[in-house]
Amino acid sequence: MTSGTTPPLVVAEAERRSQEVTDWAARAGWVVGLLLFVLLVFWLMREGWKWRATLQGDLPELPPLPSGAHEPRLRLTGRYHGTTTAGRWLDRIVAHGLGVRSRAELALTGAGVWVVRPGATDFLIPADRMRGARLDKGIAGKVLTEGGLLVITWEHGDRLLDSGFRSEHPVEHAEWIEALGAFSPFDEAGPDGPTRTTGTIRTTGKTPQEGAR
């Protein structure tokens, strides 16, 4: 071997170690870039949420749960999947905590539908504000199986809203529709207001209390 000449194996080992350092630097760069991208996405989502809440600032505070004992006609335990403008399943309502998905316990009483949400705001859907219910498969960007969602339509302020719930036992949804009265915002409005569908009988101009009895 000529004096002063570096052995090939030593050169190869040095190149390998140099390559390893270069790879780690590239990987670190990718990780940092990915983290920054994720943070940017979450920041944009947060700002979009705040902007939507600002646009919905005209929505009144949610009706609180009434005090005193109220014997429920029906109960439901499951999840609250969100609220939207009636008939527009992607137009999410986020004001006053309505945009927060959570577990939920529902109770139908003479006062209306009690919505108890652990970790989120409880609220009442008053009996005189309810317009009825229907089965659907999606709300606020959440898609479930066909007919797997109970959607209650109600008035709040000057808006008609859809609130979506899924029971732990979806077979219970039919009882709620029977009790509240079937209603779809897609139905054509008659001369006396929106058309309510109850079973196979279609009538117009019924008061909300009739659907809640």
Secondary-structure topology with pairs:
Layout: H1 8-55, E1 74-85, E2 102-109, E3 112-116, E4 123-126, E5 130-136, E6 138-139, E7 142-143, E8 149-156, E9 159-167, H2 173-180, E10 182-183, E11 195-198, E12 201-204, H3 208-212
Antiparallel strand pairs: 1-2, 1-9, 2-3, 3-4, 5-8, 6-7, 8-9, 10-11, 11-12
Please, could you describe this protein's structure?
- The chain has 213 residues and is α+β, with helices and mostly antiparallel strands.
- The protein is 29% helix and 31% strand.
- The chain has three helices and twelve strands; from the N terminus they run H-E-E-E-E-E-E-E-E-E-H-E-E-E-H.
- It has a seven-stranded antiparallel β-sheet with strand order 4-3-2-1-9-8-5. A three-stranded antiparallel β-sheet has the order 10-11-12.
- A hairpin with a 2-residue loop joins strand 6 (138-139) and strand 7 (142-143).
- It is elongated.
- Mean pLDDT is 78; it is low at 188-213.
- Enumerate the strands of the largest sheet in spatial order, edge to edge or round the barrel: 4-3-2-1-9-8-5
Shape by Cα distribution: elongated
| Helical coverage, percent range | 25-40%
Give the distance, in angstroms, between the N- and C-terminal Cα atoms: 101 Å
Which structural class is indicated by helix and strand composition? alpha+beta
Number of helices: 3
Residue share in β-strands: 25-35%
The strand count comes to 12
- Residue-averaged pLDDT, rounded? 78
Q: Give the H and E element order.
A: HEEEEEEEEEHEEEH
Spans of at least 5 consecutive residues whose pLDDT stays below 50 are 188-213
Main sheet record? 7 strands, antiparallel
| Whole-angstrom Rg | 28 Å
